[in-house]
Amino acid sequence: MAFQALIVFTLACLCVPCYGNRKFIEIDTFSNDVQKGNGKPVFQEQWITQKLDHFNGADSRVWNQKFLVTETHYRAGGPVFLMIGGEGPINAGWMAMNPGSAWLTYAKKLGALCLMVEHRFYGDSRPTVDLSTENLRFLSSQQALADLAHFRTVIAKQRGLTNSKWVAFGGSYPGALAAWFRLKYTHLIHAAVASSAPLHATVNFSEYLEVVWRALAAENPECPLLVKKAFDTLQERIKDPNNYDNITKDFNLCSKLQIQSEKDRAYILDALADNIMNTVQYNNDNREFEHVLDTNCTIKTVCGVMSDASLGDPYYRFAAFVRLRTITHLLKPCVKDLTYNANLQDLRNTSYSGPHGGGGRQWTYQTCTEFGYFQTTDSPNQPFGGFGLQYHVEQCQDIFNISAKTLYAGIDQTNENYGSYNIRSTRIVFPNGSIDPWHALGITSSISDDLPAIFIKVTLIQEQPTVPTCTLPELRISPS
Fold first, then answer.
1. Closest to 300 measured CA to CA, from 228, 379, 215
2. 448: DSSP letter
3. Which end of the chain is less congested by CB atoms within 10 angstroms, N or C?
């Protein structure tokens, strides 16, 4: 398959979403036909044995990794498409035709076998009995790439696909893994599509919120200014304990606001800003097939609410949007306990069934040891404030006892290992979009003919004359 043909796949890789006693089976035994169509399985759930530590020959411990496979579109001699899982469980929705399944559309066209592999320590792929910091030392991108290499080798041998052309797909962190898989295991992977891939590790990812500002401004130039006014007011009011009752009511907090430390203050500001940050990041990303509840909360919704003067000044408009998204996204009537210590205790929980056992604790560990990616308010060119770099760095110490020195050394090692923006390989496509904040850490200009970047500049157009709202089935929620 000519490499140039891969360019048409660039819309295929939206991010694989972030998140038992099981009977493990041999990989050549087909079972658990999860979904059927036309009398044949659409995909099957299978397991493969992996080493706990690929880089220590004296360590013989193994575990079982989950993957999904569909032969629905496969034709003899066709390529193999490998979708890489990331910081959460793999979602079976990606194995069935839906608006987000462009990779299956191209699989049908080219006769590809499609595989999706879950990342170690996420979902049902659990190499250790718990998520203790001692066990999480086996969680790294390098170990994950070695898992992929072993997976590719074993499956190719089992299915007679050793000489087939394997193409790696991924979005966001898995997009970076796809690029690095091609970089590090050139003999195993023919090409890669690295969508929205943050290839540059950085402790202070202040550019994230700069993109949020520009994305809001693309919808309405006044929108980020209104958000900034709202947040400035919130920061001022939150300094005075006499305002805590009103803030609790304005944002519909489940319990009265309590701020015992500067970390409490930073945490609640971060948590409230996250409502807009997440809305921008996942704007119109076709995730309905994953049953994500707030996909209809978009940048248009944010700016519509922030422009609605009937709701009061910008502070009250922002509060209205937070209330709206809380109900739509969480299906809860109020915002949960917003204290740093409560969140800290949740993140320290080492059980897979704990509050952050689905991926939050694991991903936080990876950011503290490999990537950083901390979305700080340190830049003046963004709408928020109050959660700077030090707040994020200290979380690594508080949760995992990882010092700032260790954190910075880990990020330097990641860039040294993979090349950061200066990645040198062949046959990797780097699709990015201007609205997505993660493009700031990716490749947006072609490095060479064999390392093309496709940067999609999006201009948002106001289509609705009235204030848009997020909705749920059989329920319409006004922003007031």
1. 215
2. B
3. N
DSSP 169: E
pLDDT in the model for residue 284: 76
In the DSSP assignment, the letter for residue 16 is: P
pLDDT tens digits for range 246-257: 999 999 999 999
CA-CA distances (angstroms) from residue 133 to 137, 203, 351, 361, 402? Answer: 7, 20, 11, 10, 10
pTM here is 0.89
User: CA dist 159 to 76, 153, 233, 271, Å?
Assistant: 11, 10, 62, 47
CA distance 385 to 366: 25
Alpha helices per DSSP H over 64-101: none
* Distances, alpha carbon 432 to alpha carbons 15, 125, 193, 457, in Å: 12, 29, 11, 9
CB neighbourhood size of 34 (10 A): 14
Q: Phi/psi of residue 283, each to 5°?
A: -60, 120
Tokens of 186: 């050139």
How large is the C-alpha radius of gyration of the chain?
23
On the CB side of 369, CA atoms within 13 Å amount to: 17
Q: Residue 68 in contact with residue 115, Cβ under 8 Å?
A: yes
Residues 6+ apart with CB under 8 A from 37: 72, 96
Structure tokens belonging to residue 457: 């500049």
- Residue 287 confidence (pLDDT): 57
Three-class SS state of 438? helix
Residue 451 DSSP one-character state: B
What is the total residue count of the chain? 480
Residue 84 bridge partners (DSSP): 117
> How does DSSP classify residue 47?
E
- C-alpha 367/C-alpha 375 separation (Å) is 11
pLDDT at 21: 33
Write the single-letter amino acid at 32. N
Structure tokens at 360: 């939050």
Q: Are 91 and 100 in contact (CB under 8 A)?
A: no
Residue reference for tokens 């200009």: 445
Determine what percent of the chain falls in helix, strand and coil, rounding each to the nearest 5.
Answer: 40, 15, 45
Beta bridge partners of 325: none
How confident is the model at residue 95, as a pLDDT? 86
* Cβ-contact 441, 202 below 8 angstroms: yes
